[in-house]
């Protein structure tokens, strides 16, 4: 499944590159047809994925953390609806249900896909916040045990005192820099979370473009889909890179 997805978005990216370079219309047509066949093949293989997504939602209901329970459960429910719409689209494209309004069902499927990705990114943001708080507390404990001050000297007043405009801007810049360094350290220490953030962020461009909320173009969509597919394949090859639960 992941290989088909990667091949489909590679075709999308290749088609865009060929169009930019002025390739022959016949070659462009063949690439588009190949992309369409790969898309239809993926839809066929996704038959039954709605039931898997519902089972995952049932398991997520029992998570102890309220925020994780909400984000993961809602994400799986939206994925189940997305796959159901995808099945209807497959029936229409394969000729089993020729009267299906494919444009309407495609818009529905991408809306559910977008909601699922928003929930995934919300879950990622929540986990990042928890890890940053833990890392910050650990740093504070280490500094107190060693007799040091606050990291970066953020409690020392700048020129003109802590409340003066001359001191507030450098302090704000220093705080932002420390938060960014802390974020980078957390993501570097947790590769599964980093991969999940990048994959969901890449996938987000696909429904945004298809729904007309943010026109990215076929080149960006193809590149983001290809990167996301490669990362998904990486989690299959190395299961420890999959974010849990």
From TrEMBL:
Official protein name in the record: Peroxisomal biogenesis factor 11 beta
Keywords associated with the record: Membrane, Peroxisome, Peroxisome biogenesis, Transmembrane, Transmembrane helix
Subcellular localization, as worded in the UniProt entry: Peroxisome membrane
Region feature (Disordered): 139-167
InterPro entries per the UniProt record, alphabetical: PEX11
A cellular component term, taken from the record's GO annotations: peroxisomal membrane
Biological processes annotated in GO: peroxisome fission
Matches recorded under PANTHER family: PEROXISOMAL BIOGENESIS FACTOR 11, PEROXISOMAL MEMBRANE PROTEIN 11B
Regions crossing the membrane: 220-241
Ranges of biased composition (kind: Gly residues): 146-164
Domain of life: Eukaryota
Species for this entry: Rhinolophus ferrumequinum
